[in-house]
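Journal club side-thread
Mid-discussion, someone asked how the predicted structure for our own chain would compare to the paper's figures. Pasting it here so we can look after the session.
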Amino acid sequence: MKIYVIEDNPVYNDYVCNLLKKEGFETLQAFHLNTARKLLAKIGEDDIVLADLRLPDGESIDLLRWMRANGKEQPFIVMTNYGEVNSAVESMKLGSKDYIQKPLLEDKLVPLVRSIQKEQEKRRQRQIPIFKRSGEAFVNIRKRIRLVAPTRMSVLILGENGTGKEHIHAQSKLSDKPFVAVDCGALSPALAQSAFFGHVKGAFTGADADKAGYFQEADGGTLFLDEVGNLTMETQRMLLRAIQERRYRPVGAKEDRTANVRIVAATNEDLQKAVTEKRFRQDLLYRLQEFVITVPPLRDCQEDIMPLAEFFRETANRELECSVGGFSSEARKALLTYPWPGNVRELRQKIQTAVLQTEDDVITEDDLEFSCEQINSPVGFTLKSGEEERERIMRALKQAGGNKKLAARLLGIGRTTLYNKLDEYGLNDA
């Protein structure tokens, strides 16, 4: 990791660099914006920029805009004098990590840099392989993600439990930024304000040190509110203010802080119904649903089942040090006809268990431990009336590799019915 120090005063620039070098950090110097742009053209992913607010050829805010416009999302710290705090706060709205007043730099710079290092390490640890689903539904979801990614709009993700709603973040432009997930169902109402906004030392009995809240931990990245419908009305009120004004105040603090986070909320609940029942605030719902993404259940994405199963088999092989080579034909049929009430989460668990306990080179139907009743229940291809019917038959045939017996099972109908439908739609050669 390198730290780029951009300061027009050579003496002060050397002073800052020496502070950092004593702590083992490598530094690079620039004295003007033009020089800095050339230097930053080769900036590394984990490098940090430390820039004086005012430079001879402009303000470092212009450099920050240039970096973000060119896809350079490295942490950016602004150095200011006492009278420049308002401009520094403005820089944070544009995406700077923090600002430090020069008289306090000796005490605050190194701890801030080390905290950024810790965040970067946490980010690397979170970078597990992500499977990009290629089914039609998820192709459309990725299109919607690309639309909303360049914005700071709040996103509401709807879908059943286990559909992988939290992985939407991994496909956004903030995927390399902090990601803080909050289980709203497990959040204590009494401690919610401190949990979200943090507190200062002495704010209440037991507060023997400053504590960062979820908003500070997610600074510059995403605050993911899982099962947001479980929040109490009082917590909803506090959250609404922070989202609406993009500011919050830690418990016991005297000044507000900027809320530089994207809010992504997820739920499997009908929030409009919760509003009607006076369990959820209408104004908060408006703020959360600026952009809505609906994640379909796995049973409606049959084309994703086997690619996901193969991905989880490979992942389980690595994690469990196994060498299972694939799935038997009967296991594949069972996977495709099971209704998956637990969605992708359940599929992963089933495959991991099967990899661990199989005694063969391939996973068998018995290894998957499905009950007959579950396997034979209709799944997502079940026929509906209207124009969808022909399309669903074609999808089922494609997924079954032309096997009409399996296609009928996927559709939840008998083979005779399927043959009649094939005649009706002229699909006998499909």
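Post-session note: The chain has a mean pLDDT of 83.
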